[in-house]
Structures are given as structure tokens and as C-alpha cells.
Amino acid sequence: MPTLEEAHTKDTDGLCRVTMTVTIRDSSVRTALLRQQHLLGQERGSGVFLPEGVFIPSPPAWMVALAVLLPALLFFTTVGVIGLCSKLHKEKEILSLREDYEDKEEDTARKELEQLQEELRWRRGLLHAADVLLDPDTAHPELFLSQDQRRVGRGPSRQILPDNPERFDCRPCVLGVQGFSSGRHSWEVEVGNVMVWAVGVCADRVQRKGRPCWSLRMASGPWSCLDTSTGSCPLQRRSSP
Predict the structure, then answer these.
(1) Averaged pLDDT for residues 201-206
(2) Helices (H) then strands (E): counts for the chain
(3) Taking the CA of residue 213 as centre, how many other CA atoms within 13 Å lie in the half-sphere pointing to its CB?
(4) Which of 47, 57, 193, 222 could be joined to 33 by an S-S link, Cβ 3.0–4.6 Å?
């Protein structure tokens, strides 16, 4: 059944104009006939012949469905691709954060292991701790020893002491009573509120009258190797447990 559309308009001269549109979807129809019946009982008809090339066929249902589904499919595919890319990006960020965390954990574990190894070396050194007693016959006149010969401090004045060959006279030094010729030995020193101090070793044959001696020194913070003949050279302090 052809689709009929009718529109009524009124001209400026008061006459009515009727426009009718007929949509023919059947390609087999080649002739359209319009019949009108007037009030006077007269009928008039008019026809239109439709050539084959002019006819525009109606699109099939599958094409209409495809035209509707294709944009929807394209939309959902785009949304899915965007969602997948976003998920992959988030997974990459999580993997990167996890790798950074594992690297930090590994670095922390390595530092803790180094500290434990350093502490172990420190503990092993304490197994060879020596019982150090200070020798008053070697003490510089400005050094004051305690009665138990385990503490020493520098006084405000110079003491009057015998100038024996074992006594230091150029540097405020004092030696221990016991010497060591071999083996491994260590001693722990507690330093009071002083700005300059030194602890070290020297040869037993060293002459105390102006001859050089070697020691480990800390003055105003940095550590240095002190040699009375050549001066001092800086040392790098390792982390202590």
C-alpha cells in the first residue's frame, strides 16, 4: 500500500492549494493513478508513469540493522580499547612501583647486612680487648693520671716530674705499661668533653725526646692520621655499629 501525504496551503488570492505526496516502495509499480470526484458528479483522473531508472528502492532490513548496529559496535569497541589501555597503564604503574619497592627493600636489606657484618667485626675485636694500664713514667708533664692508671687528662699547668728517658717532652703523650709484639689486640676508649684527642700505637724503641710517633687523631670533628714528623693526613671514618 503506497504511503499518502497531503498538505493544505492558502494562497494570497484566497485559493487553497493541496499538495499530495505518494511514496511507492514496490519496484514493480510503474504507473500511479489519481482519481478526483467533484461535487458536480464529474470525475477526473491523472496518472504518472515511473520509469525504471527513476525508482529508488527501499533498503533491505539487514542493511538498516547494520547501519544501526555498526556505530554501536564501533562505540563499544572504542570504549573497550580505551578501558584496556587504561588497565594496562595502571598495571604498568603498579609493576613499576612494586619494582621500586623491591629495590628499596633490597637496598635496605643490604645496608642492614653491612651493619650487622660491621657489628660482628666489632664484636670479634672485643674478644681481643687488652687491659690497658697507663705508664706514669712515660707521661708528659702536662698529663695527669688517675690512681688506677686508667684515666688521663691534660692539666692547666706543667708538673715537675723526673726527666727520665722514657718520658715524652714534645707531645702530650703517655704509653701503656704492657706492650704487644704479635697477635691481635684492641682497646676501647671513652672520650670526655674535649676538643682534641688522639689514640694510637708507637714502637717500643721510639725516643720520647722529640722523635716521631704515630696515632689516630680527631680534632674538631674530622679524623686524621697523626705523625709528629710529617704532620697529619685525613682519614675516612667508617660507619660504627
Answers:
(1) 73
(2) 1, 10
(3) 24
(4) 47
